[in-house]
Amino acid sequence: MWDYTDKVKEYFFNPKNAGVLEEANGVGEVGAIACGDALRLMLKVDPHTEMITDARFQTFGCGSAIASSSALTEMVIGRTLDEALKITNQDIADYLGGLPPEKMHCSVMGYEALRAAVANYRGETWSDDHEDGALICKCFGADEGMIERAIRINKLTSVEQVTHFTKAAGSCGTCVEAIEGVLLRTNASMVEAGELDVGLAFNPNAVAAPVRRAQKTSPLAGPPKHMTTLQKIRIIEEAIEEMRPFLRADGGDCELVDVEGDRVIVRLVGACVGCQMASVTVNGIQERLIAKLGQPLRVIPAGH
To answer: Has residue 127 been placed in a domain?
Structure first.
């Protein structure tokens, strides 16, 4: 279980500025309920001074998402739009006394919603309809621009960190290589600009995250060619255990029920039950098990 600060708990149990702002003239919406997190930020801006005189939020997500959204409204009220745009996701986390690494994506969601709300007020283009090739993680709607901003602002240097801050690669893991490409390119630019030490920059040859470890198996450490049922079950259990932190981060989980030949029966629990993205989660589990075992199989949710 994550260790939350007293301020995070306070802003979760007693959120400030929650609800609809009828007089809003700047609205930003990010995320999607199907992805597990969604935020609608509403701003009331004085057209003469561009001062934010009021702010409200509506959010669907975990306690950290509610606390981050609430904190953001408190931070922007009384600031001009230009002043508000200087707020980073790290500022939101610091305002709350810190967030667990696995929950930093909640502060990033607030940062992105603020940018969207200001763009909406100013009549600028800001859309979740990603251009062809720009969408990196289809499971969580994380595009290249969002990932690059998170990398630059927070000096991220691994796929695991990118997942913590954006949720990208937190489900099926098929976008890991694309994220590595963004990391390599962005970190190289940061090193050239003197924003990052070359020794800390992303190393594409390093195994950076559990997602990558689950996808690629070393020939020397691969599964035996002729496995007993017990050996097969142990490898499956190990692979599922590697994925559970990502599912638990959003209130879900996965349990192994049975193995029948090439059929692996699992039970989705918690937030995964009834989730619109459950099929994506099951497909992601299946892909990782195939990579781990080196043989075809089907993952079937219990009850199907």
So the answer is: no
State residue 204's pLDDT score: 64
Judged by DSSP in three states, 212 sits in helix
Contact (CB, 8 A) for 247 and 285:
no
Residue 216 tokens read as 């690629």
**Which CATH number does the domain housing residue 88 bear?**
3.90.1010.10
- Asked whether residue 117 is domain-assigned, the answer is yes
Residue from 62, 106, 272, 275 carrying the catalytic annotation = 106
- Residue that finishes a domain, picked among 160, 186, 209: 209
Confirm whether 254 is a catalytic residue.
no
Q: Which of 35, 139, 254, 275 is catalytic?
A: 35
The pLDDT tens digits of the residues spanning 177-209 come to 899 899 999 999 999 999 998 888 887 654 334
Q: What is the DSSP secondary structure assignment for residue 170, as one 8-state letter?
A: S
pLDDT in tens, 68-98: 999 999 999 999 999 999 999 999 999 999 9
- Retrieve residue 149's tokens: 């901003």
Catalytic site includes residue 106: yes
Answer whether 0.90 is exceeded by the pTM: no
pLDDT of 177 reads 85
Same domain, 10 and 111: yes
Looking at the fold, whether 99 and 150 belong to one and the same domain comes out as no
